[in-house]
Specification:
The protein is of the alpha+beta class. Helix content is about 60%, strand content about 10%. It folds into two domains: about 15-125, no CATH class; about 135-280, 2-Layer Sandwich (Alpha-Beta Plaits). It is elongated and about 90 Å long. The two termini are about 40 Å apart.
Length: about 290
């Protein structure tokens, strides 16, 4: 199954350059306008926190660590040069700057890391199914749109729709807890047969989709049959249930990804009508030349 990472946002280059330019303001003031900056030196050195705020926003603790390292290196270099030039140094002030810089940067990092964790949690809830912990319909649709665009450029694409047979009756007979376990069992089978480059997702109540990136109709049939046959071996004493599957592959006549889904859905209905526990492929209705 395809692995999706909800990464932290990319750092804009312009913001990165400007933030580190802010770090140079107190440095330049120290050397070029030392007398004018005496009354505002603490405030000027607090500009060195700008990179910490930026990197914390985009990278959490990692960003803060980089900003702290850069700030301490710059401050150390400045103080070495100041000592070499025999410029009077207020060591109490310097310690206050260091303490303030470290304290504020750590606080910013703590808050930022909490926000990143909440963001990752919200993305997980939005794109993964709670019960089965696999991608949900929203993520499947996003993935399919991307793959459909690639198919329009010549790449193979096939979709398999699975539906657990007579699942309402199964729930009524064995209870919702057994129904939930049946869904999880099917997901284990589905995941064990899915390639990392593909995406398998829960598409509805008892309906699942497998999007086979670069897969043709033959590969899709082999995949669907392997899932169907493996399901019986995975039950391990659970009440028996079966699955039907409908398959469609990309056709240049299809205008959108939803046309591909509709074709697979029609094949799934045929599998149900012909007795369930079987795999059917979509038959194109275009006339043969």
């Amino acid at each position: 199954m395809a692995v999706w990472y909800f990464g932290k946002p990319r750092i804009p280059l312009t913001g990165l350059v400007l933030s580190f330019a802010a770090l140079l303001v107190p440095v330049g003031t120290t050397f070029w306008f030392p007398e004018s900056a005496v009354d505002y030196e603490l405030l000027l050195w607090l500009l060195a926190l700008v990179p910490a705020f930026l990197l914390a926003y985009y990278r959490g603790w990692t960003g803060v660590a980089i900003a702290l390292l850069a700030g301490m290196v710059v401050l150390a270099i400045v103080q070495v040069i100041v000592l070499l030039l025999d410029v009077p140094t207020n060591w109490v002030f310097l310690l206050c700057v260091v303490a303030a810089y470290i304290s504020i940067a750590l606080c910013v990092g703590l808050v930022s890391e909490m926000l990143h964790q909440e963001r990752a949690r919200a993305e997980r809830l939005a794109l993964l199914d709670d019960l089965t912990e696999i991608p949900n319909r929203r993520l499947a649709d996003l993935f399919l749109e991307k793959e459909f665009a690639a198919a329009q450029r010549g790449r193979a694409l096939a979709v398999v729709l699975f539906d657990l047979d007579s699942f309402k009756e199964y729930n009524d007979s064995h209870g919702h807890a057994a129904g939930d376990e049946a869904l999880r069992t099917f997901v284990r089978v589905l995941n064990s047969r899915s390639r990392r480059m593909d995406l398998s997702a829960r598409y509805g109540g008892e309906e699942f989709i497998a999007i086979l990136s670069g897969g043709d109709i033959t590969a899709a049939v082999d995949f669907a049959e392997s899932v169907r046959k493996a399901l019986g071996k995975e039950l391990n004493g659970q009440p028996a249930f079966t699955v039907s599957a409908g398959i469609a592959e990309y056709d240049p006549a299809m205008a959108s990804a939803q046309d591909l889904i509709l074709a697979a859905d029609q094949a799934l209905y045929r599998a149900k009508d012909e007795g369930r526990d079987r795999v059917q492929t979509h038959v194109s209705e275009r006339p043969t030349p």
